[in-house]
Amino acid sequence: MNRFSAWLLAAAGICTMLPGPGAAQSFRQPIRVVVPQAAGGGTDIVARLLAPGLSRELGQTVVVENKPGASGQIGTQQVKSSPADGFTILFAVDHSLIIVPLTTPGVRYNVEKDFVPLGQAVRTYWALSVPASAPYKDFREYVTALKRDPLARTYGVPLAGGATDVIGQAIGKHAGVQTVPVPYSGSGPVIQAVMGGQVPVGLTGLPEAMAVYRSGKAKVIAISGNARSPLLPEVPTFGELGVGGLEFHTFLGFFAPKGLPPAMAQAFNAALRKTLGDPAVLDKIRQMSLEPAPTTLEEAGREVDEASRFWTKSLAPKG
């Protein structure tokens, strides 16, 4: 073997040890999933449920970190400012990503400009609950009460603005009266107020409403969405009851900073969908009164686009 041939073999050996284009786009260190809500809440619980499966499928440790504050802005902004290298991922509810920037001045992120959707995990709906002792047993009787009794026109909400305002205003318009939201510090306090008769009705996520519905301490009389929930098939949608424009749902999904390599986005999405196919994971999701929502990258992106258009129109100043 001459020197030139030996040099070529040595060079080839060195090249095989160097990372190729695909290696630079793989998950090669622990992944940090930022949840912009407090520990112990629904978003946090789902993130921690999915983390072991994602870790197994991606071959890396997945660590969940809570960065709550300012309706999800703090954690969301932190992920936006992180490198688009796949090692910092956001797991958030659509409210903090889509609605908060539309309703809160000074928010420094935009879901379509600053993030890449990696896939949805679960979805749920908004539920209208009344005390078990309420004089109205269904939505139509509640609307009758709204028309004749001003005291029935307040409703408890877990947050100010966004979906709850849209629902409350639509109910008021349907009844021909002015409804008044009463903000609480979360869905738990709203449900407690409903059970205690402190508010005539409450708007919360379906999981919180289901907990007291099963106990018999409150009744669910309507839900958002374009079809009845399989978790509560006996309860009609607002649309069925004649209140239009409330066909939306709420979703929890994963997002990366804009610029994430497509190969990494595909790998994460595949891992997520496989994790959501695990029977044990599915069983726990359904026990939480949530619906599993595995999506492709294209489906996730399309739903974000549709939600952004819907809320931009719905929350635009009237007049």
UniProtKB/TrEMBL annotation:
Signal peptide: 1-24
Presence of keyword Signal: yes
Keyword terms of this UniProt record: Signal
Organism superkingdom: Bacteria
Pfam family membership, one: TctC
InterPro entries per UniProt: BUG, Bug_dom1
Family from the record: Belongs to the UPF0065 (bug) family.
Family annotation (PANTHER family): BLR1237 PROTEIN, TRICARBOXYLATE-BINDING PROTEIN
Protein name according to UniProt: Tripartite tricarboxylate transporter substrate binding protein
Native species: Cupriavidus numazuensis
